Amino acid sequence: MVAAGAALADEVGLAQLTMSLLAERVGVRTPSLYKHVGGQEDLNRRIAALALSEAADAVGGAVQGYAGRDALAAAARAFRAFVLEHPGRYAATVGLEPSGPDDPLAIASQRLLDAFTAVLRGYDIAESDVNHALRTLRSFCHGFATLQAAGGFQWSTDIDESFEWLIAFADRGLRAR
Q: Is the whole model's pTM more than 0.90, yes or no?
């Protein structure tokens, strides 16, 4: 049920995803969904955990065998591709707080952070600055990808070229730290 909800969120947008629309999509009556999820909020949390887990797989797999700028570029490209391919499910990840360390949301989120932390090992980042560097990378990657997914780059300059410029900019910043 969660996978169907995530696919539907990607198609129509998370804000448009409702229990009744999902029930219609999977061919059941709305009350039948409550055998699988506790309601809209539960569905959204489960979609968020799925999305974070999928993003962690994508980024973690992309950085294997790379270090430094190459790892950064692989992670950033994989993250961007995930957000562009799955904008609805990715939107579910923004602003949710895990209920505790065993929450699937916390576990999946940590896996994604671990993938980006692996990227930072290729740079001379002090342990006390790792969280700042992670926030910076998230801001770069999240901002660019969500703006692009929302059609926020309407001018004629090549978007891929701009993204490569962003990767180079982040690399220079991480090396200068």
A: yes
